[in-house]
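Re: the 187-residue chain
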Amino acid sequence: MRVHGGARLAEGADSAPRPVGFHLSGTPFEQAITENLGPKQAIGRAAAALCRPGEGIMIDGGTTTLQMCPHLAGLDLQVLTNSLHIVNALLPQAGTRILVPSGAVFREQNIILAPAGEESMPRFHAPKLFMGAAAVGPAGVMQADVVLVAAERRLIDRAEQVILLVDSSKFTTRSGTIVCELGKWIR
């Protein structure tokens, strides 16, 4: 039922709590974390080996990027991430400093996102952005949701180098929203 400044449930309507806003498209994190776990762990270990002690890096939320976290202990990094899963994995590492953007928490992926056009990132620039994807193809790196694309583009703008962490399944799937072209940003 419409009311001034918003809406409310009509009398007799189901009053079960409903999520505010909308949901992200794509595979829920809890399902994706179990898919291709061995390759994701190997990719995470290799990605962590690219980090240098004391540097600042960005890690985009995702099940493959999460696999980097155990291998970052002792490097005393400064990490900007939008993923609460990654924050949780890094918290036991006393020397790791963690930064998060402002925005809303999307429970499907357990990430913090702000609407497109809204500045939510701390003033941070990093030599490396570690990023996952829903799919990779001739058109470039793709995600399942336009909100994810906007967030990843904001991260890309703050990085000198984008390091894509994907397992082989990402090359056989397609998604409709392009984050970036391969040749322009990905090395």
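The mean pLDDT is 80.
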